[in-house]
Amino acid sequence: MLATIQIDVHPHKGQAEVHNNPARFKVLAAGRRWGKTRLGVNECLDVASQGGRAWWVAPSYKTSEVGWRPLQRIGNKIGAEIRKVDRTINLPNGGSVQVRSADDPNSLRGEGLDFVVLDENAFMKEEAWTEALRPSLSDRQGGALFISTPKGHNWFWRMHQRGLTDDDEWASFQFPTSTNPYIVPAEIEAAKGMLPERIFNQEYLAQFLDDAGGVFRRVMDAATAEEQDMPEEGHEYVIGVDWGQMVDFTVLMVLDITSKSVAFMDRFNKIDYIIQSNRLKTLVNRYKPTTVIAEVNAMGQPIVERLADEGLPIQPFTTTNATKAEVVRGLQNAFENGEIKILNDPTLIGELQAYEQERTSSGL
Description:
35% of the residues lie in helices and 20% in strands. It has 364 residues and is of the alpha/beta class.
């Protein structure tokens, strides 16, 4: 599989099928222990062996160790330079493979790349691809391999769907764990007997399941709202505000109460509260909402007080376990009963579909 640096590589049939496909962007949904990591590592080294620059990108620093360990091992075998500080493998011919984390998508900007593997990208922020990695491939016309087990109908599913179209640049693959000839069939049967059917279907059969098991169901059914640049005559509006600044995003959501649909959404971070307040005022002047519901936790309190003094129809909202549960239940019912329409926005849909609940030992 490697063109210049010779390594003893014996891909199984499924891995060879992915490798030999000429598409520039490949989306691989495969079950646990199928060999996604081995394939991705070999693909990165294949590019580096030809003098190219490849990245292995994982959702977090901790999960990126999955790719770093085999890269180090192979790098030592072929006499490559191993730089542990920045987790880079430098080959004698000038090619390189670097392991990166997508914790902060902005940290992935700037480098020109020949190839990137997005490992377990169903669990990765979509901005890592759209805002950082995809532009990094442009000047070199680089390629990408998306590898993951499925997780509902999130952005990884949408990428997989794209690879099923007649777009020659894209190709999608789907393999259950059982197609790895090195996995003993009895082990898969044992897992099937122990795991809930839904989990087994997702983790071992690599099936994209709908959001029936998520906190919010029927999300895609509700994604039919059209953005309203200006308010509709005779309609009533409410604006919701969730403050953020540096890492967290501030979200301003305009809801058309009359049609029960999201009319407008603004999402941003890394700007100061004066600019955030001005953006909110602009929306208030445009839509003339009856109420602006704004969170007052942390830094929200002084901002809300100042805006109330300036005449905005502010209704403070304090987030607690109880109030959050109430809001979530209300939104659940709205989706279940088809009583709300949302914008077909990838980030909004992805966050709703990925929303999970966990009950603590105290019962909260």
